[in-house]
Design a protein that fits this description.
Layout lengths: L1 H14 L4 E6 L11 H4 L4 E8 L2 H5 L7 H27 L4 E4 L16 H7 L4 E2 L5 E2 L7 E8 L18 H5 L5 E2 L2 E2 L1 H11 L12 H5 L8
Antiparallel strand pairs: 1-2, 2-6, 3-6, 4-5, 7-8
Bound molecules: cobalamin.
């Protein structure tokens, strides 16, 4: 049953255009969720889906976000949210419960927090590691991936975090327009200030950047 559900959901995710599918045991991180207690305790698993961004769209990002990237970012969020709904529908049709977490919803504006960390669920689902750029790095696709998560109680096989790190790669370090990336750590505040500045670019108005996303390519070019 666990493996059968896993395979059916993985097939569904791939049919909907997702590049990455995995299941995380979320018990160790449930305390960090900004959700009602009763909701949190229902769900032992987190399904993590990843959509691979278009390399050619990212190529248009040079040193700041642009309209092309902005639309791609928005449409990717919509696809991620819709796919999370389809996964939710499938799970509920099997008689189990599911709770889709929006791709890009902020719950606590002051602290800039979503209700759950898609990155942490992605990491526990085996999709990659935290890179120097503070993003999830997939060995195959680098940071060219946006994620969404679905909490569930459906019986599922779980994946495990994979070991890995950026090694000697520093592609994102020099290129960051905020100089927020260093070997000593990631400067969230500098990134945040720069992204606020970028919102003043005409007809973007959203805190996006894309420069360190583009820089981190993974190995997909060679395969
Ligand atoms: C609010 C938010 C922002 C805010 C603040 C970010 C922040 N505080 O980190 C702002 C507007 C600044 C922002 C900027 C960006 N964001 Co943003 N953001 C979010 C959002 C909605 C919530 C983040 C959140 O709740 N953080 C709370 C903390 C607790 O979770 P966390 O940030 O994942 O923190 C964990 C990591 O920091 C981790 N960690 C970090 N480094 C290390 C190192 C080690 C060794 C370990 C063990 C752990 C660790 O530990 C924390 C606890 O679990 C998420 C979506 C989501 N719900 O996850 C997207 C999200 C994180 N953003 C994303 C992206 C891509 C961006 C931007 C590139 C913008 C863009 N699209 O162009 C920039 C880049 C910033 C950067 N390089 O870090 C993606 C990341 C995808 C990826 N491949 O990793 C996400 C997951 C959205 C998505 N659906 O894919 N973002």
């Amino acid at each position: 049953m666990h493996q059968k559900n896993y395979t059916a959901l993985k097939d569904l995710a791939h049919r909907e255009g997702m590049a990455l599918f995995g299941v995380a045991d979320i018990l160790p991180i449930r305390d960090s969720f900004l959700l009602p207690e009763n909701t949190i305790k229902k769900f032992p698993f987190g399904i993590s889906l990843g959509f691979r961004l278009s390399r050619s769209v990212l190529d248009t990002v040079v040193d700041m976000p642009n309209q092309i990237y902005y639309f791609h970012y928005q449409r990717t969020n919509i696809l991620l949210d819709q796919t999370a709904l389809k996964i939710t529908a499938w799970i509920q049709n099997q008689g189990f419960d599911a709770f889709p977490i929006p791709a890009s919803q902020v719950m606590d504006w002051e602290k800039q927090l979503g209700s759950v960390s898609h990155r942490e669920i992605a990491r526990l689902a085996g999709h990659g590691w935290y890179g120097r750029n503070n993003l999830m790095v997939s060995p195959r696709y680098g940071s060219h991936v946006r994620y969404v998560s679905i909490l569930t109680d459906a019986p599922l096989t779980t994946d495990s975090a994979i070991p890995g790190n950026c090694g000697t790669c520093r592609q994102c370090v020099e290129i960051c327009p905020a100089s927020a990336i260093a070997d000593t750590g990631f400067d969230r505040e500098a990134c945040h200030v720069q992204l606020k500045e970028f919102t003043k670019i005409q007809r973007i108005g959203q805190m996006i950047c894309g420069v360190c996303v583009k820089a981190c390519t993974g190995t997909a070019k060679e395969v």
